[in-house]
Amino acid sequence: MKREILITSDGSTTIHLPDWNEQYHSKNGSINETYHVFIKSGLKEVVADTISLLEIGFGTGLNCFITYLEHQKKIDYVGVEAYPVTLEEVDKMNFISVLGAEKEKQIFTKMHNVSWEEKHQITDNFSLLKRKQFFEDINDENAFHLIYFDAFGARVQPQLWTVSIFEKMFKALKKDGILVTYSAKGSVRRAMQEVGFKVERLPGPPGKREMLRAIKL
Asked: What is the domain range of residue 84?
């Protein structure tokens, strides 16, 4: 499938898939979306001293890197990705310059260079485990305080936004665990509710009216 580098509205890059008319991040701002959906509405809401975090769709590593920049607590980060981006594509991302994070460039590079299927200590209080895995094969139970659900949209991959997938997410979370996603589709909200989540509609990031946050009570 053809892949192109696209500049989004906040000046940051993303990978665009023209055959699907889909991209890894919002055209209205990759960095803006990460901060609004995953950091403000997710990470900042977790009260645990050590946060176990699962990302569904590791992709370009942007959510992981910004979580590293913004975390105030110890983080054990697990990123799941069936089709990892190439290091050549990573080199074309301009996240470091747009974020003004030149001093942390080696951390972003390390996140992409470390091996898959092994837990790596990125810093004393931030670990990363990258799993090359289809989302349908996730079978964690009572393991995470927070899930970043950042799969491609339901328009192009509806099978990733179903009751069966959200059952896996529900099981993977600890009690009072939180799942956040950019999506606000009614079918997604209903699938989450069907498996037991309490679902909130929240104001969306730039370009979207709403997003969803789900809590395992």
From this structure: 4-215
